[in-house]
Request: fold
Amino acid sequence: MNLSSGWNYRWHVTMLIQKRDFISMIFGRGVYIVLSLALLTAVLALRNSLSFIDENGLFVASGAFTFPLFVAIFLSSLFLALSSVATIARERDQGTMEALFYGPVDSLSYVLGKYLAQISLYVLMAIVYMAGFFLYATLTNFTFSLSLLWVILLSILVASDFIAVGIFLSTLSSKVRTAILLFLSVVLLFLAIEVGQEILLAIPVQSNGYYNPLLFAQNVLTFLNQIVAWLSPISYLNQGIEAIRRGHVTSYLIIFTISLIYTLIFLGLSVVTLERKGVRK
Amino acid sequence: MKKVISGLLIALVLSTLTVTTILAQTPDKQREFVYGLSIFTGQQYLGTFLPPTEGTLYMLADVTNVVSPRNTLVYFWPVTNEFKAAWDELNETVDGTLEIVQGGQVIQSLDQTQYVVQYPKGYKGGEVHIYSGKEAEAQYQKFDEARRAYRDEVAAYFEATAHYRDKVEGAMIDGSLTKEPEPPPEEPKPFIFLSTNLHDGFPITLPAGNYSIRLRDEDGQIIPESERKLVVFSFERMGVGYGVVPQDKWTTPDQSDDPSQILYARSGTVIYLQPFNEGEYNDLYFARLEAPQSTNGNIDHYRWVHHRPKEAGSLEVLHGGQVVDQIESKPYLVKQLPGSALGYEVIEQASAEDERSKTRTPDFEGYEIRVEPGQPSFTVRLLDTDGNVIAGSEREIRLVDSQYSSSLFLMPLLPLAIGTVLIVWRKRRFARLPKYGEFAGG
Reply:
């Protein structure tokens, strides 16, 4: 077998794993529940805006769909990352992974196959969100702006980052529960730091040197947030939305590139970890 | 005996209260070196100070700001959690030369001079000037003369009014008033010219960048506590913001700062747009500029800050890219409706019935926009006095439709329905396959 046909063969295996996982998720309940929840959030947000306009006559906003889209991206990414954490750890736990690796599957094709299954499902979900939001916009006359498409494009990479982290954490652990707890802990920690900083900075505390505990907490969270800004996919999404709002194409492209590199790093780490740790339970 | 004990107890309680009160009202004051500040916010000058605890001073680029080295009494005020200066107890100018340092090099050495800040049309009039040196003295002199002239006008008005009243009353008493009396003396126009007193300080005008400042005393020695970092920053973007005044809630106007913002309105809404020049600044820098002791502000965020009202020509209304209307800015009056029910109406000043309403200061000015049914969306943009479109002034206005708001709930059910159909279909499909035992058994 020459090198080219070796890669073709690996790609074929990758696509088989992708197809198997994709179909498995399409026939699962989770994806439909997440889609419904995200669309329901959008409806609640829009109805809230409509009620406000009915009552006050006027509502000034940058994008009526920015918040619903943010929620949709977060829910979908979390769901897909969790499902990749669960499937890989479960397959290892149940010995399926070992059986696959006796065949033509190797670490790279396995990790890539898992990743492509999740990301292709995300693209499908994103199309549903766009269709849903477009319908909402048509019915209510809220703007369905071009900037939403830029957010959606970036969101594919954000979801990709989530999935890559999920896959990486699942390769570290052999138990489903441990892998899920590890993943959720990381996500919650990032969220707590980001949201915590926003909340604390909004509290109007005046300076009293470093003796003020609130000021100390603000400084600590600001420092941690600078680190999280590089590690959290949600932070990339926030920065991307801000770049789109301000029309900063360069910033958008930088965030886009960093997100891509982020995914590649974690997928690479997943392959290495799987090679080192082995596929046995 | 009881009386004695009661008396002692009351005395004890009162003395405790007295001590507590005294402690609460006398914070510990320390003599400190501080910088008094007159900082330009884009709209007006803000008077504040930089206590010793704050190591960095923030100011806008390419405009004049003033720092004034002072010795004063500084105390911590726990109610607002900030340091305050007891200027009325000690306000001592510290003489010397202010050095501005960048990259280790002294780039400017400034001498202290007098300065004055003036608002010829009042705080909200949009015009602000800062003068220093001899010009400050001359401009303050002008202000003082204008103030004296106004005082004389007011005195003359009161005198004329008293004379007029006596004359009319006299005519009424002696019966010589047979026709409408002549109009009363005209009230002088309000004096809105504002000015600070002459103060000492160092006017600083710098381009954006990171600097440090320090004060060298008359002996040529640097006063150690005078060394502070100086962050001079500029706007990220300039634009046109709008104050959006809804007709039925004119006391609570909204704002549209970002050109990407859309004004969603219900049918029949009338709004008045008030354009402002605005700049977008780093959130943290601007928060520290406004309040040097503040811990608010996020270095990753940006905020729009309204500067002065925008002097412009017409407001163009566009439908599908075609100009369909031009609106002029007009003065409006808010008229309380008679009767027990609370309410008011907004009327154009020119259409007011009485002469006094036509000449008084209007309640607000703006471009009136009516959101009529049948116009799902349109765009407005501002023209300058030469008729050119002002960049960044475009705003889209959309008429929202809430008649289908309940139907929106059907959409989230759709994925659930599709999912259920798919899952049931798959289960049935696999249910039709022969089971292993059945197949093997033939």
